[in-house]
Design brief:
Helix content is 57%, strand content 5%. The protein contains 13 helices and 2 strands, in the order H-H-H-H-H-H-H-H-H-H-H-H-H-E-E. A two-stranded antiparallel sheet has the order 1-2. Strand 1 and strand 2 form a beta hairpin.
């Protein structure tokens, strides 16, 4: 049976989403998905009975209309949404169902933007893993949700076996062993592991530490305060997290683009070619090309060729094949 409060939240979500659709006309994925963001925040505010979350809609719309610089506008989105979501988490009843719903909305905010690039079944597995962590935690606190979101944020979707990482953390949380015993070996392993696995080890150690601190009778407030601050600060970067999370772990090895690179941005149809002038006194040139559905072609398939014309008129031809 819907109550008056439920109908008010439903009306707010619909009205805010419509307003965001017409106001957010920027070219970034976050601008285009602002209605999706508003709806997720409405769900968070509704389940947490936090009416102050409704203030997020006019603040987001004001940022969309007044900030023309993309970086400043997206950073404003991140701060506003992080504050609203953190408030909903702190105000929410400390039950498993409420914590699970908040964790689900948080995972969608962190990983599902832009929606067009989401490999749905893989992301559903990550979402299920985050929910499993929430149910495995002993205490129902804001840090419980933060720990589940942290694990979900760094879980890579390729290769497929790493999708099981949240479930490994869940199994270890369910074992009747003090959490600090698991946190120490994961922290040590992070020092010796390669960059991709090291990130997973660090986050797993933090998850075990969070559950230990929250369950400890001593209430280690000295440790809890920086954990809360770090969680809110990390969530403020959510506008950049969707693409980053799905690019794990290769994102950690990414390098700054060379200043000598020049974007050509030419889309060639079948049978067409394009001529590119190389800079003078250049001894070698690297060409980066991509093709639609190229990943589905078998190794060795001919997709094109490159012809280099020298100053004397000589021509050198090189075929481009899949897996070169």
């Amino acid at each position: 049976m819907l109550t008056r409060s439920d109908l008010e939240w439903l009306a707010f979500a619909i009205a805010a989403a419509i307003a965001a659709h017409f106001v957010a006309i920027g070219g970034t994925p976050i601008d285009r998905h602002l209605p999706f963001v508003v709806v997720l925040l409405a769900v968070s505010g509704w389940i947490a009975a936090a009416r102050l979350v409704q203030m997020v809609a006019p603040l987001l719309l004001a940022a969309a209309m007044s900030l023309s610089d993309d970086r400043m506008r997206i950073f404003a989105y991140g701060v506003i949404v992080a504050a609203a979501f953190a408030w909903a988490v702190f105000k929410a009843p400390k039950t498993r169902l409420v914590s699970a719903i908040l964790a689900a909305t948080g995972v969608m905010l962190l990983r599902w933007i832009p929606c067009s690039d989401v490999p749905l079944w893989r992301e559903i597995v990550v979402l299920a893993g985050a929910l499993a962590i929430v149910f495995a935690m002993r205490e129902r606190t804001p840090m419980t949700i933060a720990a589940a979101l942290a694990v979900a944020a760094v879980t890579p979707i390729y290769p497929g076996r790493l999708l099981l990482f949240p479930f490994v953390v869940t199994i270890l949380l369910l074992l009747p062993i003090p959490r600090i015993i698991w946190a120490v070996p994961f922290a040590i392993s992070a020092y010796f592991a390669r960059y991709s696995i090291a990130t997973l080890c660090v986050v797993a150690a933090l998850a075990f530490l969070v559950d230990f601190v929250e369950d400890s009778r001593r209430r280690l407030s000295v440790v809890r305060v920086p954990l809360y601050v770090g969680a809110i600060a990390l969530f403020a970067l959510w506008p950049w997290s969707g693409i980053v999370a799905r690019a794990m772990p290769r994102f950690l090895a990414a390098e700054e683009a060379s200043r000598s690179e020049r974007a050509v941005w030419v889309a060639l149809e079948a049978g067409r070619s394009v001529s590119i002038d190389a800079p003078p006194q250049m001894h070698y040139v690297v060409i980066t090309a991509s093709g639609a559905n190229a990943s589905r072609l078998p190794p060795g398939w001919l997709v094109g060729w490159v012809e280099v014309v020298g100053r004397g008129g000589g021509v050198i031809r090189r075929d481009l094949r899949i897996s070169d």
